[in-house]
Specification:
Elements (H helix, E strand, L loop, with lengths): L4 H8 L34 H6 L1 H7 L1 H13 L7 H35 L8 H15 L29
Helix pairs in contact: 4-5, 5-6
């Protein structure tokens, strides 16, 4: 008669391994930034919310992004542009917070759809349209895709797209 899983494993011939243990000491960065670099908290979002907000981030943080890219073109040393990079991060955090405050339901719906569908935009056009409308109404931001053909509708505004979710 088997008493517990250990006995069952021994009978089947498999070895028992100790469970991994988590460190009891919190992680400490071995190479902290110098004091002259301002501290910025991380955004606290995964790739799906960032992708959901990507085009709005491009418009909202355009000046900071351009400053950062000009700085990177001046000097390839990573330490040279830390301040500009921190400004970009602060701007992105500001927009993510505004999206959460004003369009939480639509934002969550869109990024969760992206998360479930391999982060493909064409699979999530319906929640994307509601998010775009909410962001336009409440924040005044519009989604524009750079280098789109002039005189044609943006890909997210096409009524009968070629690529769409397969309905079964």
């Amino acid at each position: 008669m088997l008493v517990n899983c250990k006995d069952e494993r021994r009978l089947k011939g498999s070895r028992t391994r100790p469970l991994p243990r988590l460190a009891k000491v919190p992680y400490k960065d071995p190479t902290p930034l110098p004091d002259n670099i301002p501290h910025v908290a991380e955004l606290g979002v995964t790739s799906a919310p960032l992708k959901s907000a990507a085009f709005f981030l491009g418009g909202f943080c355009k000046d900071y992004n351009e400053d950062f890219m000009l700085c990177k073109a001046e000097n390839r040393d990573p330490a040279h542009c830390l301040k500009e990079g921190r400004r970009v991060t602060r701007c992105a955090a500001d927009l993510i917070n505004k999206l959460r405050e004003n369009c939480l339901k639509e934002f969550d719906s869109h990024w969760q759809c992206l998360e479930k569908n391999n982060q493909e935009y064409y699979m999530c056009r319906k929640p994307e349209r509601t998010l775009n409308q909410c962001v336009f109404d409440k924040l005044g931001l519009t989604k524009t895709i750079p280098d789109s053909p002039a005189g044609k509708p943006q890909i997210h505004e096409v009524e009968k797209p070629i690529y769409k979710a397969i309905q079964k």
